[in-house]
Amino acid sequence: MMNSNTLDAEIYDPTTNNDINDHVSATAEGYRDKTANKVITKRDLWHIGFRGLLMEGNFNYERMQAGGFCYSIIPALKKIHKDPLDLSKALKNNLNFYNAHPKLFTFPLGLCIAMEENKENPSTISSVKAATMGPTGGIGDAIDHMTMMPLTLGIGAAISLQGSIAGPFVFFVLYQSYHFFTYFWLLFFGYNSGVAALEQLSEQAEKLGRSANILGLGVLGAMTASFVRISTPLVVTAGEAQVSLQTDMLDKIMPNLLPLAFVGIMFYFVQKGKSPSMLIFSTLAIGICGRLVGIL
User: Fold this and answer.
1) What is the C-alpha R_g of the chain?
2) Closest CA to 40 of 109, 132, 127
3) With a threshold of 0.85, does the pTM exceed it?
4) Distance CA 97, CA 149 (A)
């Protein structure tokens, strides 16, 4: 194995018989050292996994999560590639544009570690990373944002509504327990499954994503009826008769009609591209003003 000084002399010393263009073209599609050795241990994977928790610390609009992905995989690359030129090529290859779900990206991370260990061509590894960005992003959003977060938030909110301070802590423990289990399990699964797992993901991604979306919509629908509370104290007076607008009219037509109408209006504005932050603050303002005026 040549050291870095020998490598520099081979590339840049004009007295050598090697031509730099031939050297670069010979390594453009593969690594110089193609010996595949199993050097990654479970301890290495745990180390890589904990580094991956910081993968969005260098998020930017040029390469998205590329810096975080490369930072996560560096310990594996250093153990796998002893040739300095191969290590440099692997580092640059893993700095290509990347964007996936931050909680499910460990699956392609494990895949790439297995492929690097097998000394696959860098172009092949890049193709695998690109192929997993879409499925992991779609499935991750459906499972995490639309299912697990509303579900755990709902449990925590229900406890808080009973007057207990434990609500936020229950939400945090439940959500993070699911997060860490899924995060590290996918890393080991991706590494142990290797390239074969990519085919399984491609076949099941659409079904899994659709199932998660259906489950998430069901959870959100149930939470709408349980946690969105809007009522009006207005009373309509007709002569000596007094009719409560809420209990005598709206609830007779459909219970929770106002919450349903409010959710429908919010959904309409979101579909029109309105900012969620703007809708949240507008809701807050309407609630305060409605309370002061006496209509809510």
Assistant:
1) 28
2) 109
3) no
4) 28
